[in-house]
Amino acid sequence: xxxxxxxxxxxxxxxxxxxxxxxxxxxxxxxxxxxxxxxxxxxxxxxxxxxxxxxxxxxxxxxxxxxxxxxxxxxxxxxxxxxxxxxxxxxxxxxxxxxxxxxxxxxxxxxxxxxxxxxxxxxxxxxxxxxxxxxxxxxxxxxxxxxxxxxxxxxxxxxxxxxxxxxxxxxxxxxxxxxxxxxxxxxxxxxxxxxxxxxxxxxxxxxxxxxxxxxxxxxxxxxxxxxxxxxxxxxxxxxxxxxxxxxxxxxxxxxxxxxxxxxxxxxxxxxxxxxxxxxx
Amino acid sequence: xxxxxxxxxxxxxxxxxxxxxxxxxxxxxxxxxxxxxxxxxxxxxxxxxxxxxxxxxxxxxxxxxxxxxxxxxxxxxxxxxxxxxxxxxxxxxxxxxxxxxxxxxxxxxxxxxxxxxxxxxxxxxxxxxxxxxxxxxxxxxxxxxxxxxxxxxxxxxxxxxxxxxxxxxxxxxxxxxxxxxxxxxxxxxxxxxxxxxxxxxxxxxxxxxxxxxxxxxxxxxxxxxxxxxxxxxxxxxxxxxxxxxxxxxxxxxxxxxxxxxxxxxxxxxxxxxxxxxxxxxxxxxxxxxxxxxxxxxxxxxxxxxxxxxxxxxxxxxxxxxxxxxxxxxxxxxxxxxxxxxxxxxxxxxxxxxxxxxxxxxxxxxxxxxxxxxxxxxxxxxxxxxxxxxxxxxxxxxxxxxxxxxxxxxxxxxxxxxxxxxxxxxxxxxxxxxxxxxxxxxxxxxxxxxxxxxxxxxxxxxxxxxxxxxxxxxxxxxxxx
Lengths: 280, 480
Known about the structure:
By secondary structure, chain A is of the alpha/beta class. Chain A has helices at about 50-55, 80-85, 105-115, 125-135, 155-170, 185-200, 215-220, 240-245, 250-275, 275-280, and strands at about 10-20, 20-35, 35-40, 60-70, 75, 90, 100, 150, 175-180, 205-210, 225-230, 230-235.
């Protein structure tokens, strides 16, 4: 739902980031307003997963330039846990297994960390049990999964449902869902997408990171961005996704090559025109 | 800042029990000789059989060599440079706590073990051992009403000599190994527990060991006997001040369970571990063994080992009675330059005997953590079963974890299962928890307690809380 006067939740400006000294993001610009659903599409290696990790604060990624404002405040200055507490959520492409840590206890600690930040009182085990049972409906998840260790021995689909369950409990303002559709069969995809649709509201924004049109058949985006070589190459409405589906990504390669060539030329020209005094 | 380095910082917390109590102490001169053995025995006014026991052990010790098979390394121990007896200057055991030096009571209070009538724990009887002597035992009278004897071993030698003579050294013979021989020659104090036939001990029993003097070795001796159908849960805790020299602690613990008896022995070991460069700390060379002498008897060892520069310890079960059960649950945490070589031995002698081993090793810093265990099925152990599970967790990339399982079977009908795993707290797991609003420290602590849960579940309630707190303490610190 696009409302030009809706408050800006996330503003990404010329964001650059590297992993192991290898530049991956090369100037990403993106603005998310309340109520909007955005989809970022692109090939493997285009930088879309990196974008999600950088926003969540993964320590392996180093921000080398640009800024990210979350409701007007500097997001990049915060520890990952602080970002989560103020309402940023990352749904992982490959949720890790954490043996020995009870899923129920994990969900409760996470929920209470968010609630404390919101000025709400912490939930005791009984109150939390009631809440979690209600939220299980969102993803039609079996309560038996609460008794197991976090993601341990879960199938791909169960892991993704557990992600959306966490989203339902944490009630984020900005939810980034990284390849949530990968590894899901069509029924699981419907359930997970149904959960996302239920949770999307006029107050929050969703950023879907995906490869394929099939997720966008069940969650309708307001904007579609095409990402390549670490930047957003083109932005359009949902029809852009259909166009990608039809034409494939080859035209993107051509365009990025052209762009990079012209940048190199500009850079060479800038260096060539410098006088020795300026360089010194 | 890598995640591993930060986790390393977290586990490097200062030792909180490193203070020294300033109290006048009576010490004998350094060194070990037959005269020293006689002197210790004389100081304790012991009967002749015990002096003989000590002297025999001393002669055996002289002929033995320090074991060198463990996966540990240290400079040679100079046995002539150790004080073998140190005691706070006060007359033998006081009749009432009011007469005990308040400094001692204060020390134990500081350690979280209040002994005075008003403050003492309501459901645990405590024997408090300071250097070489026991200074107080709570709830003795109440226990006596049930026929339960709980006192220091020195008192037991005087008041229950016949029981000591009957059981001492029958589970761990003095010549069992180098350190048991040394202990048998010079042991000073420790606890004695006797639960008569058919009695379930009405409260948990606990001994708290405190080393205070520098240059002193501690050689405690504990003996627990549960007669037919009796049961007891016993807890042991220990701490020491920070000295920059190494101190030797060589204890012997013997458990005897007769028909249908059950003994649960839990330890939270937090001796001083040395500083972050490995200077100082306790050398912990301990022999613990339980004998399931009777049919259907049950002995369970649970240990949480977090301290000591070196831990060399293999609480074992001799499963002699038919259908007897032995258990070993262990968490060993090593950090900095700590070295632990610990595990268990399960000797299946009787038919249908069963044993369970669950060992969790956590190694951080430059430490080395080894599980060493033996499962032996004797020729008569028809239908005997063992299940072993040994898991290691590595924190950082400088620590080492080893598993040395030894299996010997002379009984084709016995079944032995062994499972082992190694894991690392991964940066991705930490990030996952953090990205859900859980702080770094809490994330590490959740994963470590999760890893240890199978063992903590075995601890008595008060101790489980203490163990969790102790690990959290070692893991607490600024994220930076």
